[in-house]
Amino acid sequence: MILLLTRILSKIALAITVGLLAGCQGGVLDPKGQVGVDEKQLIIVSTVLMLLVVIPVIFLTLYFAWKYREGRDEIYEPKWSHSTKIEAVCWAVPIIIVLILGVITWKSTHALDPYKPLKSDKEHITVEVVSMNWKWLFIYPEQGIATVNKLVFPTDVPVSFKLSSEGTMNSFFIPQLGSQIYSMAGMVTKLHLIANEPGTYQGFSANYSGAGFSGMKFEAIATPTEADFEAWVEGVKAGTHGDVINHAILDQASYDKLAEYDADPHHVHVATPVQYYNSIKPGIFHDNVMKFMKDHGKVELLKGTPFDSTMIKGSMDHSDMDHGSMNHSEMSHESPEHVEEDK
After folding, report:
1. Which of 121, 159, 217, 311 could form a cystine bridge with 204, CB 3.0-4.6 A?
2. What would the pLDDT profile of 36-75 be if each residue is shown by its tens digit?
3. What letter would DSSP give residue 119?
4. Comparing C-alpha atoms, which of 199, 153, 193 is closest to residue 173?
């Protein structure tokens, strides 16, 4: 009877596993990049370790329910109050599993650090990403172009992403390539990914951010060669992609226009179509990250102090501040008269 029950349960488990894996195409269990492969292995190893406890518990639960079911002569009457062997098993097994998981977590956390550049004999290409309501803006500072809701990069070339947000916090995620990471206004997060197979992969927002959240999807295309990528870049600059909306420069005015959205909760939000910008204003990404800084451009708190004439100039980068040139009297909150009296 036990053998028959085991066979039935194994067949049910196999059917459930096959059914679940049937929908894994294109997801985290179908990786196309080294980061995704490493993360898939981590998921499988962690799941197997946890199942070492779960499966025996499920099996014993069913076994005891069957063995001591009503109508049988079996009577469950334990004649002991303590068992050192059972206590040892109950404590040792989870402790060992937690220790193993701890070691795996420590190693994988450092190995898969999203801020850590990937080892490669090829130089990383940089892509600056801005999440907007509700679209993705991709800026290529080295190539001097920008795209909306379409990301293109060459196969086997690592990509260094710098991410920020124009508004609500969002999460950038390409399941087949690996890690997801948050984008936040006034901050820059980093992510490094690589595609080891050419193809088109689905990217989207993994963090709810408003009424148009479901339309925040984009295609991540890994071109077969670097030459194909360069040809695509030249096509964007020349505006020869006839199936895509082509714009001129991405400057602050066009950036602000792109960032506009209808906040009416009753408005039906339609996914933003793919768009290209054949040139960009240098530093546009950094400028729009820094605009959320409280004192960017001026130091309101220092008005009326000795700093006023030297630091409040309408627009000033924080790097222009020469802290070494400030003497004690300039840093004092007291008036110049009090400084003279102290002398």
Report:
1. 217
2. 999 999 999 989 988 888 898 899 899 888 888 877 777 7
3. P
4. 193
